[in-house]
Amino acid sequence: MPNGMISVALATYNGEPYLRAQLDSIFSQSYSELEVVAVDDGSTDATVAILEEYAAKYPLEIHRNAENLGFVRNFEKAVSLCRGDFVALADQDDIWYPQKLERLRPLLDDNLLVYSDADLIDEHGASLGTTLRDLYGGLRFVRGSHPRSFLLAECVSGNTMVMRRELLDHALPIPDGVPYHDIWISFVASARGTIDYVDSSLLQYRRHTESITVDQAARESEDTPRNWFRKRARAVTRLQTMAACPSLRPNDRRFVDRLAALAGGFRRRWFSVALFWLVWRSGGELFATRTRPRVLPRALFHARGYRLHRWKLRLALKRRLTFWRRPRSL
After folding, report:
1. Are 264 and 240 in contact (CB under 8 A)?
2. With contact defined as beta carbons under 8 Å apart, do 162 and 26 qualify?
3. CA nearest to 157, candidates 69, 64, 228, 89
4. Which of 21, 203, 208, 275 has CA atoms 20 to 30 A from the CA of 100?
5. pLDDT the model gives residue 51
């Protein structure tokens, strides 16, 4: 059996309803060389008391933030405090299968980061009858060194990944320009080395139907000029941040620089032919994480400017108003 200590970076915040089940699953792993580093982000429920209860029986180290950092910075702090040869990320409300770490650990001999699929459950622990791979119209897991596949999409969820500790020297600190820590870590790993995956579910991933992120996604799904502008601005910031990653190889850096520069002109233009052709030619790489990449409509979408999108929405609204104002026949 491969050796080397695995540190589990656990970020907590008001996780009382689910934390015991997660801790039980972590300390029931068939891989025995592990420690858990828990960082609490200012919980007001019994989360810290539960952590202290488990710390009395298991190798669990507890840290408490003086002020709320948010989940990305909280994970960053937890990871930085880990001492193991390998580091796994843990959400407070999931449930790991007993062989999760044992299955992933051998792949780390040849890769910087490895990950897996996950079975989805609801807030009550009931199965949703689907897996992480089925989300967003179907995900295709990627392996090897393909950082371009993480520029516009992603397929690695933080709660499924385990990484070599040396990756942290290049992935931390997590820049502000990316929305989630797992996006940045998997991108850096693929840029600097190789990644791999186990093609099976190794945990139960709890999906909360009333979570803040779900509510935000529902609000932003409304196709309005303001929402479109905000989402496109965040996408450009993400590309610009990734273009500055020191781990990129020269040819990848030139590609990301070009993509970010073209995407950044969306505010004043109608349509970018140059951006369309760049996305179209590179669609196999840019959308490698999608089972149905549909490169042509995606290239058209990314090349569209704010002026064209605003005109399109106004035209659609005018048509709807014309329909409802049309006299009804008796």
Report:
1. yes
2. no
3. 89
4. 208
5. 98
State the residue for tokens 């937890």: 78
Q: 85: which 2 tokens?
A: 């040869």
Give the span between the Cα atoms of 81 and 167, in whole angstroms: 14
What residues are paired with 200 via a beta bridge? none
Give φ, ψ of 97 to 5 degrees: -75, 150
The DSSP code sequence of 228-258 is HHHHHHHHHHHHHHHHT-TTS-HHHHHHHHH
In this prediction, residue 214 carries a pLDDT of: 44
pLDDT in tens, 50-78: 999 999 999 999 999 999 999 999 999 99
Cα 182 to Cα 188: distance, rounded to the nearest angstrom: 10
Q: Which residue has the tokens 């996305």?
A: 279
How many helices and strands (H and E) does the chain possess?
A: 13, 9
Q: Give the integer Cα–Cα distance in Å for 79 and 181.
A: 11
**Which run of H or of E encompasses 89?**
strand 86-90
Instruction: Decide the pairing of beta strands 95-96 and 195-206.
Output: antiparallel
pTM over 0.85: yes
- Residue-wise pLDDT for 73-131, tens only, equals 999 999 999 999 999 999 999 999 999 999 999 999 999 999 999 999 999 999 999 99
What is the pLDDT, as a whole number, of residue 223?
Answer: 60
Which pairing describes strands 113-121 and 195-206: parallel, antiparallel, or unpaired? Answer: parallel
Measure Cα distances from 149 to 228, 242, 249, 328 in Å.
23, 12, 14, 52
